[in-house]
Cytochrome c family protein (Palleronia pontilimi), 173 residues
Amino acid sequence: MFDTMILTKVIGGFCGALLVFLLGAWAAEELYHMGGGHGEEQQAYSIEVPETGGEEEAAEEGPTFMEAFEVADVGAGERVFGKCRACHNLEDGANAVGPHLYGVVGRDVGSVGGYSAYSGALSQVADVWTPENLNGFLEDPRGWATGTSMGFNGLPKVEDRANLIAYLDSVGG
């Protein structure tokens, strides 16, 4: 059946395996650092990198928000609104987890009647939901309005934000 000798062998096997593992890790670490002083040697070949290249590349990445907003596609914005639909409604006065977005473009921040769950962080950074303010908020809600209760991560693509704002602007008001 089961006696103490079998238990002793099992425990001894685990301890032996652990010892081999620890000794192997120690030996590998010693081999890796053999000779010591990694990082102290002079680099054999250095590649010169121009310092101003990053700014030019950042400018060439894509259109600015205003350029994207001028050519925004309302139909594409309606598809992007699918991400907002879980918490927001488009019907006037139909609040959900978040306030309704009917006529949000040009509306005062925090002014939806019947909705009282505003965090207060939004009214500290903007007075009116202009397309520029909506763009900043939709890009990174928690970064633009620190302390906001909106749990959305944001829309990284400027085209998606421009299309969504154009769609919201076309809906009501």
User: Anything to note?
Assistant: DSSP finds eight helices and no strands in the chain. Residues 80 and 164 are 6 Å apart (CA to CA). Residues 4-32 form the longest helix (29 residues). The helical segments are 4-32, 53-60, 65-70, 74-80, 121-125, 131-139, 141-144, 158-170.
